[in-house]
Amino acid sequence: xxxxxxxxxxxxxxxxxxxxxxxxxxxxxxxxxxxxxxxxxxxxxxxxxxxxxxxxxxxxxxxxxxxxxxxxxxxxxxxxxxxxxxxxxxxxxxxxxxxxxxxxxxxxxxxxxxxxxxxxxxxxxxxxxxxxxxxxxxxxxxxxxxxxxxxxxxxxxxxxxxxxxxxxxxxxxxxxxxxxxxxxxxxxxxxxxxxxxxxxxxxxxxxxxxxxxxxxxxxxxxxxxxxxxxxxxxxxxxxxxxxxxxxxxxxxxxxxxxxxxxxxxxxxxxxxxxxxxxxxxxxxxxxxxxxxxxxxxxxxxxxxxxxxxxxxxxxxxxxx
Length: 320
Fold this sequence. Notes:
Elements: E1 5-13, E2 16-19, H1 20-25, H2 33-38, E3 43-46, H3 53-61, E4 72-76, H4 88-94, H5 104-111, E5 118-122, H6 129-143, E6 149-156, E7 165-166, E8 169-170, E9 174-181, E10 189-198, H7 207-229, E11 236-240, H8 246-256, H9 268-271, H10 278-288, E12 297-304, E13 308-316
Parallel strand pairs: 4-5, 4-6, 11-12
Antiparallel strand pairs: 1-9, 1-10, 2-3, 6-9, 7-8, 10-13, 12-13
Helix pairs in contact: 7-8
């Protein structure tokens, strides 16, 4: 993937913002507000009653420069129902399954006048789907010499009445989008390598079991990803993970012998875990600080249900 680059990151969040204590009082959480506050969480975002996951996707894509062509769309959802914007009442009334095949990626292609790019949907990688879309986009560009740019995005909204907590993490409805391109651009991020581990035997793991696997699979994932790139932890300038309990990454950093100051989770208190969007949200914030310099390696890490673990290594190009 040495000639694949990530550019132009954007994200969107649900329209309604709630303090941790408000959601605890409203019955949206399993853990106490004090426990989640101790984990680093303060605020999160929920979609309004008339706002769906596709609205989040459109809001994110509107922030991207859409003035040049797109050869493919990789559209990722964590909850499979967010991969369909069809009318369930129409399905029940007619029993016609076409109402269950109203795909948001197709709508996106039409709504943004994207001139018939190929469409790919990911829905079985849990919260790791955005990183999975980057990997798939890189593979598509390698396999299709005539293609130059792939739009990657992820969008999810929890259903009404859902608990906004998963594995002791505060959840936000959110979307993220970026381009993966075969054309180097000043300030772009070169996609060095990507790696995934899936253990389907843990598909129904409890919250406690999910947390326990974090400390065995994340270090393994990171080590294997570094080996693929011929790098060591000393070569990594920044680790940009998901917005999970900040104590978890303090432990993981020690296990990997990575300085905690190199772990960037700046959005955790004010946004929480925005499902598959965390890596993009945190990476965009990191780039905005001006602290990333050309030549630095950045490690993106995400764990998700399935159970899945994915990681991507990026290298900052000249022009940042």
